[in-house]
């Protein structure tokens, strides 16, 4: 009896022994993982310090280096926004140190772009961007806005160049990038439909995508907190509607960000776009604020075209008459503009304000025939009371 009991105890002890071993092994692995994580963080901090130490030191405390201002003044290359008021008619207008901004120049052989006196430190760069937004882009007296855009676009490229040379990161970098992204998104709406010789949407898009990617990388690698991350992740998804990488970036965000109202709405709009449910998409667009609608506006032509194409097949019948007012509601347009849009796509609207859909009559408009500016009412209605300055500073 005692022998059997001893055997049972031995078996029980032997059965418990491995679990204790696994616990100690697991604890040991956790400690190793924690030490590795701490080691990686320390290495990352050291690497960041090394990069900052290697980066050139900036010493220029003005928006435009004194040497550049003198050179451009002597060569008569100052922009009209940079000269001293009253000297515009002079043979060589005088440059205003308080208005002149360093222009973008391509790196050239033998040119030292890392010279401290030519580089502006982060606080001066932020001050420069604020000046460009407040006094140039937001001005009500400077016209035309295409010229305003051209000037601000070039000077922002110069800011970006200084940031890259100094390997700028952190909150200063984020603050500059956020203002720049808002400017480019607003410009993509305001200058939509302008002649290519004045405004090229592809160039604006290329630079905007670069700024967005840089900004999102700062969010991922920085320590934060970044109070505007929700806003810009939303703008990025709406601007790149239907894009797999943009969708993936949002889905990989922390749960607390994904569940914010603006990102949930953006994800719902993106889902409707991917499913081809354009009626639902246009209804959801009504809930967006002005800048969010600016980011999405370039997709509106595609959505409305697909909706008309689907209806041309679905309501293709000799005896079918679709009310123009109802179609206008679905397209989020005025009835008169809806009738014009139908005619552009070859869809007939009779004298009784009835739409006669026909799949054989649907045609694609010729280049330049579709003036998208006419169909921006869904965006322009949301701008009431908002100034350019308040929009780009995020005060909406």
Description:
This protein is mostly helical and 396 residues long. Helix content is 59%, strand content 2%. It has helices spanning 2-54, 66-74, 122-137, 145-165, 171-190, 201-221, 229-239, 244-251, 255-258, 261-275, 278-285, 290-296, 300-314, 324-331, 335-344, 377-380, 388-392; strands at residues 322-323, 348-349, 354-356. The protein has a 3-stranded antiparallel beta sheet with strand order 1-3-2. A hairpin with a 4-residue loop joins strand 2 (348-349) and strand 3. Helix 7 runs parallel beside helix 10 (261-275). The N and C termini lie far apart (85 Å).
Put the structure in a nutshell.
This protein has 396 residues and is an all-alpha fold. The protein has 17 helices and 3 strands.
Reading side by side through the largest sheet, how are the strands ordered? 1-3-2
Radius of gyration equals: 29 Å
Uncertain segments of ≥5 residues (pLDDT<50)? 1-19
Coarse morphology = globular
Largest sheet: 3 strands, antiparallel
Element-level helix/strand string: HHHHHHHHHHHHHEHHEEHH
Q: How many alpha or pi helices?
A: 17
Kindly report how far apart the N and C termini lie.
85 Å
Mean pLDDT: 88
Structural class designation? mainly alpha
- How many distinct beta strands? 3
Helix content: 55-70%
Give the percentage of residues in beta strands. Answer: under 5%
């Amino acid at each position: 009896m005692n022998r059997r009991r001893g055997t049972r105890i031995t078996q029980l002890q032997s059965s418990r022994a491995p679990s204790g071993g696994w616990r100690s092994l697991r604890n040991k692995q956790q400690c190793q993982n924690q030490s590795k994580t701490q080691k990686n963080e320390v290495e990352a901090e050291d690497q960041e310090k090394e990069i900052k130490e290697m980066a050139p030191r900036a010493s220029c405390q003005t928006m435009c280096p004194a040497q550049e201002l003198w050179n451009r003044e002597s060569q008569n290359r100052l922009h009209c926004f940079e000269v001293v008021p009253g000297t515009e008619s002079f043979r060589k207008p005088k440059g205003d140190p308080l208005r002149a901004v360093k222009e973008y120049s391509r790196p050239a052989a033998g040119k030292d772009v890392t010279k401290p006196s030519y580089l502006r430190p982060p606080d001066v760069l932020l001050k420069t961007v604020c000046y460009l937004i407040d006094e140039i882009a937001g001005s009500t007296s400077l016209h035309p806005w295409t010229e305003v855009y051209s000037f601000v676009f070039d000077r922002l490229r110069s800011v970006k160049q200084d940031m890259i040379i100094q390997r700028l990161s952190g909150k200063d970098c984020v603050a500059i990038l956020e203002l720049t992204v808002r400017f480019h998104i607003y410009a993509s709406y305001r200058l939509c439909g302008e002649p290519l010789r004045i405004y090229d949407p592809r160039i604006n898009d290329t630079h905007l995508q670069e700024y967005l990617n840089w900004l999102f990388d700062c969010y991922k690698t920085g320590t934060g907190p970044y109070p505007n991350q929700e806003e810009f992740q939303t703008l990025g998804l709406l601007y790149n509607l239907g894009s797999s990488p943009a969708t993936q970036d949002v889905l990989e965000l922390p749960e607390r960000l994904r569940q914010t109202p603006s990102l949930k709405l953006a994800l719902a709009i993106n889902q409707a776009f991917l499913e081809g449910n354009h009626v639902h998409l246009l209804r959801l667009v009504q809930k967006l604020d002005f800048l969010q609608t600016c980011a999405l506006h370039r997709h509106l032509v595609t959505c409305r075209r697909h909706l008309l194409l689907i209806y041309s097949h679905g309501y293709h019948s000799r005896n079918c008459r679709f009310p123009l007012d109802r179609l206008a509601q679905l397209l989020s347009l005025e009835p008169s503009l809806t009738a014009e849009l139908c005619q552009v796509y070859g869809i007939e609207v009779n004298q009784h304000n009835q739409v006669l859909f026909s799949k054989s009559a649907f045609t694609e408009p010729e280049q330049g025939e579709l003036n998208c500016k006419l169909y921006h009412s869904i965006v322009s209605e949301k701008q009431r009371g908002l100034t350019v300055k308040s929009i780009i500073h995020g005060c909406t």
